[in-house]
Write a structure and sequence with these properties.
The chain has 233 residues and is mainly alpha-helical. The chain is built from 13 helices and no strands. It has a domain of 87 residues: Tetratricopeptide repeat domain (Serine Threonine Protein Phosphatase 5, Tetratricopeptide repeat, Alpha Horseshoe), CATH 1.25.40. It is elongated and about 65 Å long.
Length: 233
């Protein structure tokens, strides 16, 4: 169900998500390099992020790890998140889920929505930590409450399927709606089906068809299959 999204560290996404401390990443520039070399923790974290995704500079995972580690060890949240991603995917460093879990936790505790989502995934998949659905729900909720659409979708799935939480279709609809309104295709599909079936919401085939159509337009296969059935009627 829940999967880490590759390259969550794009500068645009970080700026859009924000954090509890509202620290926005700085794009690559000679000035950023100078600040990082002078020991500025935030600049080091931002520089590590630039190297990780190839933002304004040639992608180099080893350089990303080098700068992210310097930043993370000084407590910078984005340095911690970059380093966690590197360990999780084995980019520029040997893959190590326990190290990834350690650094995701540090970043998540500082309010990074992406780290909270990824930490929830670690708990859900049992990577770097014992599988714990309740902890997964705890952290994905924190991320969802910050407006991260993927977390909102997964939280909808948790409530809809009763994973780590009491099954509650109304709560599922609530979170699917938030995610669907941000354009998440899978949330749109599930929301459409809930309207179609009258689960957690008054049955409304027109509303169901609306969301399924939007999802199908984005290439969601189950939605496309449902859409074709609707057209054939």
């Amino acid at each position: 169900m829940m999967k880490l999204i590759p390259l969550l560290l794009t500068l645009g996404m970080l700026a859009a998500i924000g954090t509890a401390k509202d620290e926005k990443p700085e794009p690559y520039s000679p000035e950023l390099v100078k600040k990082a070399e002078a020991g500025d923790a935030k600049a080091q974290g931002d520089l590590g992020g630039c190297y990780y995704v190839g933002g304004g500079v040639t992608q180099d995972y080893k350089e990303a790890v080098k700068w992210a580690r310097k930043s993370a060890e000084q407590g910078n949240l984005w340095g911690q998140h970059t380093l966690a991603n590197a360990y999780y995917f084995g980019r520029g460093v040997t893959k190590d889920y326990k190290e990834a879990f350690k650094w995701y936790t540090k970043a998540a505790e500082q309010g990074v929505a992406l780290a909270q989502y990824n930490l929830a995934t670690c708990y859900f998949e049992g990577k770097g930590v014992a599988k714990d659905n309740k902890e997964a729900v705890k952290w994905v909720t924190k991320s969802a409450e910050q407006g991260f659409a993927n977390a909102q979708y997964d939280l909808g799935r948790f409530y809809g399927e009763g994973i780590g939480v009491t099954q509650d279709y109304k709560e599922a609809v609530k979170w699917y709606t938030k995610s669907a309104e941000q354009g998440n295709a899978w949330a749109q599909y599930h929301l459409g089906m809930y309207y179609w079936q009258g689960k957690g919401v008054t049955q409304d085939s027109k509303e169901g068809e609306k969301w399924i159509t939007l999802s199908a337009a984005q290439g969601c296969i189950p939605a496309k299959e449902k859409f074709e059935k609707l057209k054939s009627k």
